[in-house]
Amino acid sequence: MPSPPPSIFTRIINGEIPCHKVYEDDKVLAFLDINPLAPGHTLVIPKEPAPTLDKLSDVSAAAIGRILPRLCRAVMRATGTSDYNLLQNNGAAAHQEVMHVHFHIIPKPGGGGSQGLGIDWPAAKIDHTAGAQLASAIAAAV
Ligand code: 5GP
Questions:
Q1: In angstroms, rounded to a whole number, what is the distance separating the alpha carbons of residues 3 and 10?
Q2: Strand order through the sheet with 21-24
Q3: What is the pLDDT of residue 5?
Q4: Pocket-forming residues, ligand 1, beta carbon under 6 Å
Q5: Residue nearest to atom 17 of ligand 1 (CA)
Q6: Is 50 a domain residue?
Q7: What is the whole-number distance in angstroms between the Cα of residue 6 and the centre of ligand 1?
Q8: What is the residue range of 23's domain?
Q9: Residue 3 has what pLDDT?
Q10: Active-site residue flag, 20
Q11: Total structural domains in the chain?
């Protein structure tokens, strides 16, 4: 079976498409989002072309986890923002458009404006009986 075409992010990693790079090491690249929700909106991606986080190797996951807090600090310092969201979408139904793992660092400027991530959070009370069963099932699957 032919392999899928490289994602737009793989093409950015390979230098075929330009980006505003903010960080690079042998496993990770970070650059500005081309359609920012707020100034400084940054994407952090592994060089490994995993489509979703659950498919990412431990080595790449560790490399991203090591650098993410530092990149968050840098984005906040450069934009003069103290609040931000970290967003990571997996799958089309979860609003993932580019099928290559990426973390969004999205500054949330104060002042009540509309910049930054807007969140609809349709929370409900937990059902403790079902919750206990689900927690056991998830724990067994880890
Ligand atoms: P997703 O919805 O998959 O979590 O987010 C994908 C993000 O990638 C979007 O915010 C979109 O603006 C960004 N993006 C898509 N294509 C490009 C591109 O060619 N360059 C850059 N810098 N960002 C891109």
A1: 14
A2: 21-24, 28-32, 42-46, 103-107, 84-87
A3: 85
A4: 8, 17, 19, 31-35, 43, 89, 95-98
A5: 34
A6: yes
A7: 14
A8: 8-118
A9: 76
A10: no
A11: 1
pLDDT (0 to 100) of residue 1: 67
| Ligand 1 geometric centre to CA of 10 (Å) | 12
What is the DSSP code string of 81-113? ---EEEE---SGGGT--SSS--EEEEE--SSS-
* 49 within domain boundaries: yes
Of 7, 8, 106, the residue with max ligand 1 atoms within 8 A of its CB, to mutate for a pocket test, comes to: 8
Note the pTM of the prediction, 2 decimals.
0.96
The residue whose CB lies within 8 Å of the most ligand 1 atoms, and thus the one to mutate among 8, 34, 41, is 34
pLDDT in tens, the chain (142 residues): 677 789 999 999 999 999 999 999 999 999 999 999 999 999 999 999 999 999 999 999 999 999 999 999 999 999 999 999 999 999 999 999 999 999 999 999 988 888 999 999 999 999 999 999 999 999 999 9
Provide the CATH number for the domain around residue 63: 3.30.428.10
Residue of 41, 102, 104, 128 marked active site: 102
**Which amino acid, residue 121?**
W
| Angle, CA 99 vertex, CA 95 and CA 101 arms, to 5° | 90
